[in-house]
Amino acid sequence: MASRANHRFLLRSALLCAAALLCSGTAGVGAAEGQPSNPIPASNFPIASDARLAGDAKQTRFVLDLDKPIQFRAFTLADPYRVVMDIPQVDFRLPAEAGTTGRGLIQAFRYGLVMPGGSRIVFDLTGPARIAKSYVLDAANGQPPRLVLELEQVDRTGFVQSLAAESRPELRPALSVAADPVVAMKTAVPEPAAAAPAADSRPVVVIDPGHGGVDNGTQAGGENEKDLVLGFGLALRDRIEKAGKYRVVMTREDDTFIPLADRVTIARNQSAALFVSIHADALPPGEGDAQGATIYTLSDKASDAEAERLAETENRADAIGGVKLTEEPTEVADILIDLVRRETRTFSNRFARQLMSEMKTSVRMHKHPLKSAGFKVLKGPDVPSVLVELGYASNKDDLEHMKSENWRARTVGSMAQAIDVFFAKRVAKAGPTN
Fold first, then answer.
1. CB of 393 within 8 A of CB of 221?
2. What pTM, to 2 d.p., does this model score?
3. What gap in Å lies between CA 120 and CA 85, rounded to an integer?
4. What's the pLDDT tens digit per position in 382-423?
């Protein structure tokens, strides 16, 4: 326990150092004078009011309009080709369609919060490109301050050579989080909620609202998946905490990006007895219609083509968020090896069946409500885990349900009941020391 506490202390120190470096200008490429050392009040966050692309397939420019100059750090990643731009926390007030269509070398871009005090813009590229120029322009001639990124087409060899050494596909060494405070800011595991006192023997339930920050998840009807599932997750937390039987830990409580492996690590560090990941599916245009809630468990082989499609989509979250491509640390490798642990899968499947039994009495379920696939977020070897798709945001009725307080209350109630029954059976079968 002492070593774990020391590890968390070091991570926290690294994060603070990284944030200080970003604000002081020693880690940024751009420059801004007079950044305050104290946290910036929410009302004083820089405002991004517009973004636009110009150029062609050989040279492409991205321009972000701001109300004040900011500092930033930009770098490229391979496989898939991306450019990541880390900036201080920004109040994004961009048009709703911003980033959904591309131009030239930029296929699309995403933006959002990745940690308190830090935002990120991730550019999906159409092919290999290098950062030719990146700079901040002060307000002049009636134009606001602007953040500018200029990209230039290169071949694969030139792209790889432009990468930082630790990011090159042929190298990819394992990174020490404490070695580079800027890397630590982007990759360190988010500090989980404070551990409960030793005397608190209640089972720990981890609720994992999917996506967040730069990763919007599915988008339909003017709604982002990350917002729908966060609202649901917080309502489920409140319902469970009110009963007082379990200690609840959230992987995120706000619009923050959390890498998939970190979500698993949070559950393992908290010795969770149950992990529930909340999502909302959507069928791609032209692939028909579907509706109803679905419950997924982990398996090496997907139960059907739709489950395989969904797992591939969800597992891309780290690429969307711009997580650096490094070798997986030993802990994650151990997770992959331990996936076959029969007891954990048995408990996961048992809870999934119980959850389906409770939910079908109050909400519409998919015609095949129990499925399985290789979801990264379910790969905790010793934590029973399920992923719940509340419905299809691409279906008008399902989307209206997910936005409805009445529907949410019914669904939260059925989930809370399933959790009660699950733990009651575990205690009855294994005794109170399980």
1. yes
2. 0.65
3. 6
4. 889 999 999 999 999 999 999 999 999 999 999 999 999 999
